[in-house]
Sequence to fold (296 residues):
Amino acid sequence: MALRPHCAEETALPVPCKVNLRLAVGPRRADGYHDIETFFLPLPEPCDAFFIRRFDEPGDIEFSCSDPELETDDNLVVRAYRAFAAATGFSPRIEAGLKKRIPHGAGLGGGSSDAAVMLRYLNDRAGDAALAEPDLSALALTLGADIPFFLLGAPAVATGVGERLIPTDPGLTGWHAAVVCAHSRVPTAWAYAALDAARTFPAKPGAKLLTSVFDTNRRAFCVTGAPLRNDFEPVVFAAHPELGRVKERLLALGAAGALLSGTGSAVFGLFRQRQSAVLALADLSGSGPRTFLASL
Fold:
């Protein structure tokens, strides 16, 4: 009778998300991409969770997910495993179960973070086959522009398509982020196309955003000298006005700053006091969106 393979390790790993404190988008390049300048801030909530079993034999990944829609071979987790195996020859048989809590299509980087955790897990166990950090980051970039940031695991300013990273302290220790995730989804490709179109055919003079970047009754909130900014807000809020109303409400409830994250649909507010953030989330959760509190 064949012996069952020995399970070498069982582990649970948290998967953080991110918000963008700043997201400035350059013109569309000849290759179809856009140069950006962004400030990534990792958040502990909302987070996904990995449950991994690794066996003492070569093989492939058996992937399961709490969201059946994401349980495919095209999932970034599976692609990350197979890209790492192809690059290094290290391909242990693993069973990877992913519990999703980071909303899909919210601009919080959940898929990229999942992939980064898988790459880090494999690289930490690959022994002599492990990749040097620059090579691991380069491999990550072939899978997604945000994945190198999640490998870094620290606040960072990013340029290029998001791969050139400079670790930067935003000065927010002790602050709290209230994250509001509406049921709307904003496809990234649509957001970039809408932004390009808006720049090609600008709005008539006098057209205004649904919300201003800051509450005009307060001193503008800045991070390392640069104000909060997201170039996608005009087009996303025009298509999804409910997201603009969330931002307005966060500011009205005392957030020092509030912003769309990435291409959306998550909107976050930054609060100095935890109780203020808790009260804001209690106010907003009654209208249906999923809400999360993250301490920085």
In short: The chain has eight helices and 13 strands. Residues 206-220 have pLDDT under 50 and may be disordered.
